[in-house]
Amino acid sequence: MNATTAPRPTALNFQIGARTLMAVQRSMIRVPVSLDEAREGRLPVLPPLPRDAHGYIVTSLPADRLDAMIYASGHMIGFVRQRYHRYFADLTGGYDGYLAGLSSSARQGVRRKAKKIAQVSGGTIDVRRYTAPAELEEFHDIARRIALRTYQEKLMGEGLPDTPEFVRDMLARGAGDAVRAWLLHIAGEPAAYLYCPARGDTLIYEYVGHDPAFNDLSPGAVLQIEAFRDLFEERRFTRFDFTEGEGQHKRQFSTGAVPCLDLLLLRPSLANRVTTAALGAFNHSVAGGKKLVGMMGLEKLARKLRRG
């Protein structure tokens, strides 16, 4: 576990669907929990809290350790920001066994998608792996061109980074055998990338993207399964960490998951008590409203109203 010791602005959103009605800003230190810590139920060690910080945001805390974490914090105000499963794939077996463990619909879907890509690519799946520093420089140049066209980059600015700091870290990882990266080419054109740094014997799902021109061919799914094929053959890593958050892609390709949550730990000030109480009541009323709308069959009308 490595805490991000510099406080960062964090918004406590009063939100209905994708619409934010109001946001209260707090300065928080991020304390991420690793996959190994989450699987073993270990609590992270909280770093000293600077005077200008309101508290911590603990990510991927095992859900059954909520009360213990609040107690360990010295009874700070605990507020659950979101709940999710942290998905991972066990790489210690063989590829055939992994594939057999997927659902039949997932296996059939991947085979169908791979066949479509092969048909437009001269009968083969062209996936290239990059590990050494010189190879990673080539990967980064090509992947950045893909990233500029992805929704992650256009909507959130979260495509593969192009900063000097990222490139230095990438090359250092390459020199230390601590990163794997792949590119999928379709009909000779770069179509999708996957960049995964390593933490010990765990590979981390960090940056992924594909050219929207190839959306109909589902390049992300095909690249993922081919990367797994490569990893099972290499036998260098024992786990693949899909990191925080839900998603069909993660569920489809995982072999296990840990129920987790993101926990805000705030100083026990009056302002923080009022804010978390108000946000908790608001979220409870929104959840109740959603349930009522579902019971009355008014989902379509509710979606129209949220969009304005």
What would you say this structure looks like, in words?
With 308 residues, this protein is an alpha+beta fold. The chain contains eleven helices and eleven strands. Strands 1, 2, 3, 4, 5, 6, 7, 8, 9, 10 and 11 form an eleven-stranded mixed sheet that branches. The two termini are 42 Å apart.
Structure annotation, total helices:
11
The N- to C-terminal Cα distance equals 42 Å
> What portion of the residues fall into strands of 2 or more residues?
25-35%
Q: Which percent range fits the helix content?
A: 40-55%
Lay out the secondary structure.
Layout: E1 4-16, E2 19-32, H1 35-40, E3 55-62, H2 66-72, E4 77-90, H3 95-101, H4 104-119, E5 126-130, H5 133-147, H6 151-156, H7 164-175, E6 179-186, E7 189-199, E8 202-204, E9 207-210, H8 219-234, E10 239-241, H9 248-253, E11 256-266, H10 270-296, H11 299-307
Parallel strand pairs: 2-3, 8-10
Antiparallel strand pairs: 1-2, 3-11, 4-10, 4-11, 5-6, 6-7, 7-8, 7-9
Helix pairs in contact: 4-8, 5-7
